[in-house]
Amino acid sequence: MSRRLVCVMFGLLALAVFTFAVDNAPQFDKEMKAHDRLVRVLDQIRRDYVDADKTDVDKLINGAIQGMLQTLDPHSTYFTADTYRRFREETSGQFGGLGISISVEGGWLTVMSTLDDTPAARAGLRTGDKIVKIDGKSTRNKTVEQAVMELRGDPGTDVVLTVYRQTNGVVEKTNVKLTRAIIHVNAVSGTSVATASGESERGAILLRDDIGFIRLAEFSQDSASQLRGAINDLLQKGMKALVLDLRMNSGGLLDQAVKICSLFLPPGSPCVSVIPRDPAHKQTYSADYSQPYTMPLAVLVNHGSASASEIVAGAIQDHHRGVIVGPKGVNTYGKGTVQTVNDLPNGDGLKLTTARYYTPKGACIDKTGITPDIGVEGADLNHWVKLLTEKRIGLLPPPVRNVPGSASLMGDLIDDLPGSASEEGDIDVSDVFASATEVKGATTEAPVYDIQLAAAVDFLRAQMFLAAGDPLKTAKTAKSD
Questions:
Q1: For residue range 88-133, what is the model confidence (pLDDT) as tens digits?
Q2: Are 247 and 285 in the same domain?
Q3: Residue positions annotated with a catalytic role
Q4: Domains in the chain: how many in total?
Q5: Where does 304-449 show beta strands of DSSP type E?
Q6: pLDDT in tens, 24-56
Q7: Which domain holds residue 251?
Q8: In the chain, N or C terminus with fewer CB closer than 10 Å?
Q9: Which residues pair with 166 in a beta bridge?
């Protein structure tokens, strides 16, 4: 490079710094003092810290950067070149891991959800578990990305997790050994649902009364097309209403959330708005399918439903397109921020929170979540764990005869008793249920049914009954765009 060019570049840089300093003197002075503080501390550590092998400049600077980001939120993080390379490999859809989705709560790694038929699910890990150690090393204040890098590895290798679990105020500690495996992510067929016969099927089934039930595991690259295919298959089998299960779905790609909203909303309907620091740069994503499905719809959520799941639930709710069914008194997770990933010199990377999600009516999802339209008593975390471990997700209570819009086990028990209320006079329902429980359940634990799904089916049956079938005749198959 010529001497003249060097002089010109130096002059331009000096001019830029001088201009910034003049125009932003107070802020510039504050930042320069902060830089000076950092340099002085770094120099003191390098000269005087007792263990010289811990004073590598790169490691110290990396730690300082991570410390800055941790003061912002749990989702912003800095990648060294190696961790950044591995982070980008995650988007391939196939990797050696455990099948677990995690977040940071109170400084500890926390399980959000597990994928079906993966090492994490088979080991019994569940939402709310605290992973306090990975291979004997504390996870305190570790970022999600740092933990992911440690949890993943070559298929066939082992990792030991120390897990704390709180149940009714009692904390249990256990060490769980898991063997990493290739995780094949399939949004629909990668899930399993129980049938009335007790068998398991993959992803999508037709329940009684021609109501379809589809579980969506995550919002990966082909989730919308997989969901569309599953819906079309059920329509060919006679489906007239749909329950979309987003429970424990921790989210994924924004564009897939918008595409799935588009399957159910009229063209042009806003699905979600992304608002950065400067609201003038607000970006709204709208439905764009020309022929969306019009069948009655219910969406199942719980505290493990996050991010893209909340976008879909919020859009369906705000447009009154369907009903959101969740545990009573429990909102969805409340992960409503957008992270932008940027390349840095030397192969490093920076993931920084740059915007927030807002529902079509302007509600901020972050830290608040979506409040269900229907809250189901008893559909708490413990109930979900039973459904998962006993493979009962999707299993409804026995049908109630001659009672449209109801699917109550209590009703079945009353119906099965000899005689009837009309023959014997008024009967106290609680007495009948108590006596039925005493007869049938004295030595056997009551069967576990998917009561949250049952509530959604009740709603759809009632809607179909009141509509006299008219909405069902207009159910359409969304065309591939």
A1: 766 555 567 898 888 888 888 888 778 777 899 888 888 788 999 9
A2: yes
A3: 307, 318, 335
A4: 3
A5: 323-327, 337-343, 349-358, 374-376
A6: 677 778 888 888 898 899 999 999 999 999 999
A7: 192-389
A8: N
A9: 171
